[in-house]
Amino acid sequence: MFYSLNRIMSPAPADALGYKPLDGGWGWMVVFGAHISIGFAYSTPKALSIFFKDIQEDLGASSSEIAWISSIMLAVMYAGGPVSSMLVTRFGSRPVVITGGLMCGVSMTTASFGSSIVYLYFCIGIIGGCGLSLNLNASLTIISKYFLAKRPLANGLAMAGSPVFLCFLAPVNQYLLGQFGWRGSLLILGGMMLNCCVAGALMRPVTPLCRPSSCAPPKKVEQPDKQNTKIKRSFVKNLKTFLDISFFKDRGFVIYLIGNVMFIFGAYAPIVFLSAYAINQGVEKYSAAYLLSIMGFVDMFVRPGTGLIANSKWIRPRIQYFFSFAMVFQGTCHLLCPLIKSYAFLVVYAVFFGIGFGMVFALIFECLMDLMGNERFPSAVGLVTIIECVPMLLGPPAAGSLVDKFGDYKYLFFMCGSVIVTGGLFLFVMNVYNYRMLAKEKRAKNRERNQSTAENQDQGNVSEAEMEQTEMNGAQQDVENAETPIEM
């Protein structure tokens, strides 16, 4: 039983790629570049909240209007997944990440001249969100091409960019705000985000060795009209591929998607309201702000550590169950948070929050790679991210509405914790069912194959028996002819 599960849940083979991933070498430089681009992608929407109070006073906007800046940025980042994946397939990760870095730099630079909240929605939310989407998907895809055996570790190191950059950008933005105001801070932040272009330059494309038997002779140069028609057809074909609903016929993908959507719905609201909850409990403002720093610091070490654990021979075949445990662990922390009254226990909650958050995000894309394989991962991650933009938008406002309605933050944590725990339990139970069904289907195919082979052997044995009987009849006839006297 365990042997069959290990075979079913083992990593996807590399034969579909046509080459063996390097699992090292220049791949670690690629991981470093992905660490930078993913770090900016996940930390920027959170770190921008430091500027919101000053922007609100300068532009005369309400709190809800200001909150939409990060919401739009995150939603566009997730919704741009299919387009980003299609561009990566067409042009490769290096030019896509460089383009994304340029868009991020331009978005922050132009936003520094904004005079209305709608202008910031367009510059930061839409342009910046598109740039972050290009950075995120291209970085994840290039890692899947460089790593196979060490892929969980590589993903953990790359995803660690989120807490590292959050811990770095938060104090830097606070310092810049005090020295240059929000406009000058956005201008400097735009220059900092151009480092994503440097990260993209590190993402050298993988060039598999050309075998003599597989190398085709050079083709004739096509006419421009035919070439343009071919490009258009390829574009339409790729667009249909990344929006293909055939993924929903895959049982494992549907299970992963439902659990992932439930997690995303409750994942970000506790981060947004943690400081406010601590202040509401009588904690001093700066001490309340340190809770996020503690969470990010713990998260920084948990992500690569989780990658090491997930890469072990005991966990790797059962990584989907490890992902379920991480979700249940984090959801349980949120459920227990309202019972905490002292700052010391809030620090403990922040530590466990960082552990759970780091484990989930170190595994969230690795589990999708494990289910879909390297070949189908770019399409699958594009579809997943565009669906995730819905709970990303609805989760924090829904949690905030509970605070407005009841005047207490505990219902926010109860809601988020319940949704996440339910999602984790759903993943665990349904993955048990899925792998048993896969094992059952595999045994059925083996029986059919064996039965077909046995029938072919029986037919062959019957044919041999008929041939032997024919030979015996012929020999007997010869004997009878030999014994019959010849009449003269």
From TrEMBL:
Residues 27-435 form the Major facilitator superfamily (MFS) profile domain. The chain crosses the membrane at residues 26-45, 66-88, 118-140, 152-172, 184-203, 253-277, 289-309, 321-341, 347-368, 380-399, 411-433. It comes from the Eukaryota. The lineage of its organism: Eukaryota, Metazoa, Chordata, Craniata, Vertebrata. Belongs to the major facilitator superfamily. Monocarboxylate porter (TC 2.A.1.13) family. Residues 451-462, 470-479 have a biased composition (Polar residues). Residues 446-488 are annotated as: Disordered. Signal peptide: none annotated. The keyword Transport applies. This is Monocarboxylate transporter 2-like. It comes from Stegastes partitus. GO terms for cellular component: basolateral plasma membrane. The keyword Electron transport does not apply. Pfam families: MFS_1. One of its GO terms (molecular function) is symporter activity. It is a multi-pass membrane protein. Keywords: Cell membrane, Membrane, Symport, Transmembrane, Transmembrane helix, Transport. It is found in: Basolateral cell membrane. It catalyses: 3-methyl-2-oxobutanoate(out) + H(+)(out) = 3-methyl-2-oxobutanoate(in) + H(+)(in); 4-methyl-2-oxopentanoate(out) + H(+)(out) = 4-methyl-2-oxopentanoate(in) + H(+)(in).
